[in-house]
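FAQ
Q: What does a multi-component entry look like?
A: The components come first, one per line:
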Amino acid sequence: MTRLGLPALSSLDGVRRPAYDPAGVQVGIVHLGVGAFHRAHQAVYTDTVLAADPTWGISGFTQRSATVRDQLAPQDGLYTVLERGAGAAPPRVIGALREIRTPDEDGGPAARIADPRVRLVTLTVTEKGYRPGAPTVGHLVAGLAARRRADAGPISVLSCDNLTANGPTLRMLVARHCAGSPDADRLLDWITESVAFPSCVVDRIVPATTAADRDAVAAAIGVRDEGAVVAEPFSQWVIEDSFAAGRPAWDATYTTDVAPYEAAKLRLLNATHSLLAYTGALAGHETIAAAMTDPALAEAAHRLMTEDAAPTLTLPDGFDLAGYQDAILRRFADPALGHRTAQVAADGSLKLPIRLLGTARDRLAAGATPQWTALAVAAWMVYVATRRPVDDPLAGKLAAATAGFTTPASLVDPLLDLLPPVPYPVWRDLLVAHTARLLHDTRT
Ligand code: CS2
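Then the predicted structure of the entire assembly, as tokens:
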């Protein structure tokens, strides 16, 4: 079968094609971490604006591996987004990714960030990518230093990961990393003057693409596409509109303060996703949608949102909380996506503090009992104690902490030591009670 690429583009049927000539697009964005999420989210928004402004093409870098480069480079960067679920649009071919490289090719991201035509760096490197030792911040600092030396002008850096205050967090990590570089003071001064770090909130469920998904795309579009991604129809992007050198006219929500949207997304959607992933996996469910068919789990998901998380939120004006919560549960329940509980369960040691522990602290401080939040954390504890291997950067420590536990308390205490503190004795009591029940249910 023919492979997707510029030559095959004109012959595709039943497919939405780029409304511009991809070969005529100039690169204006460097993206770090060209995984499935970037391809189904920011690149789609960018694709929509390229007909009107072809100066915002994307130069994408993989985090390390050459897989995505090898999938996309032979296809001239073209790939399909296949929506699945209620309201799905026809397959759409995206042409926004004009270059695709590994970080060790052609001078890496640093050389590209120093190009004056580039005015924006975006990142999707997951929670792991911001840990000490991860290469991203180093690439970014090398790029900003090269840009200063080249006198290539101001630039913005937009983190699109599920972190609290992702803009300021990244700015802080960059500043810290600069301290070790030659000419640190001048570089820091230049960054303060010339680099913006807006925050944003991204939302779209994008499961890891499977071989079966690629076959489905080939059947739908009539050519092989090794870089295809599948996604739910829903997509949202809330962006703090403070850029240093312009931005594409993305069809997003722009605001001066993303914090209320961010807390709502992390504490309602992502927290509930993690709850369903761990409780669902322990109950033997392969997918989030399967977990949602279990009435007890669906109820826990609803009550985590309404009883624990919602009371901690300060919502944006006019925000339809009930509608937002209902939409989340509907999205999770849609069986078309096949989003695996194991995928959402990965990297829990980094996700839980962001999604769940803030809610726990806020509710405990208010004298309330965050039962459902405790259930989610307890389910993570039982999950990491009973699954091997655990997909988490702390896998070794988690295995050591849970080896040979004998009682719920002897499971909870060493794991609590690996998480940021929630300094209320009742929190531990809640976790012990929930792990006791979960261990009992998992064994019987
Ligand atoms: C999920 C998110 O894998 C996970 O941890 O909770 O990736 C989730 O699908 C997205 O944030 C939805 O926008």
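Q: Is there any commentary attached?
A: Sometimes. For this entry: The domain at 259-443 is CATH 1.10.1040.10 (N-(1-d-carboxylethyl)-l-norvaline Dehydrogenase; domain 2).
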